[in-house]
Amino acid sequence: MTPIRPATSNDVLRLREIAEASFTPYLERMDTQPAPMLADYAALVDAGEVWVTERDACVAGFIVLQLRSDHVLLDIIAVAPDAQGRGLGAELMTYAETFARAQSASEIRLFTNEAMTENLVYYPRRGYVETHRAVEDGYSRVFFAKRL
């Protein structure tokens, strides 16, 4: 397993690059840019909500986790296209569970855009259960939860 560490301000540009590269393929399926392409990564890093994993001394993926009163929200997960298929996404998902348990959270929640059909198959394989669908912030989202 690759070490996962809190992101720093030095990582912000790379986070933006990874988000752009990871979510650009979805542009042809959506009416607007995916939310992770518009996120304020500097603010998320300043809030202590971003963790990164590296390959060859370069940030190759990241996860945004937000502690809520009754759960942890997995807000964004992204792996650089040239690092995909190597298990980094799975490692980040496992880290989310470790983080949630350390915070005494009994559930992780996440959402994805319904146009990101790959995620609709991937998250259930990781133990997430679809809870509902809704339009939120102009996006057609599918919501999932996993009890820990």
From TrEMBL:
The keyword Manganese does not apply. Residues 2-148 form the N-acetyltransferase domain. The keyword rRNA processing does not apply. PROSITE patterns: GNAT. Keywords: Acyltransferase, Transferase. InterPro entries: Acyl_CoA_acyltransferase, Bact_Acetyltransf, GNAT_dom. This is N-acetyltransferase. It comes from Gulosibacter molinativorax.
